[in-house]
Specification:
By secondary structure, the chain is of the alpha+beta class. The protein has two helices and three strands; from the N terminus they run αββαβ.
Length: 86
């Protein structure tokens, strides 16, 4: 399973999102640190979930990192998060 699909599956399970986009932005970073041929090194995640209600921005980011787990996080060079209450 691709990293993008693994991210999507983990976040769907953890947050029951109202909206979720997992965007592979790797090609935009060709020639930069962490770029991996074939992509799947740089991601942007847009996630709206009621689970974020009452949480600070840092708490939301920590929750996403926990849901993805250390193994998957270690495989990703860059992860941009846009997290909203939905």
């Amino acid at each position: 399973m691709s990293r993008a699909r693994r991210i999507e599956a983990a976040l769907t399970e953890a947050f029951a999102p109202k909206a979720l986009e997992v965007i592979d932005e790797s090609e935009q970073h060709r020639g930069h640190a962490g770029f991996q041929e074939g992509g799947e090194s740089h991601f942007r995640v847009r996630l709206k979930s009621a689970a974020f209600a009452g949480q600070s921005r840092i708490a939301r980011h920590r929750a996403v990192h926990a849901a993805l787990g250390p193994e998957l996080i270690a495989e990703i060079h860059a992860l941009a998060l846009e997290l909203d209450v939905g």
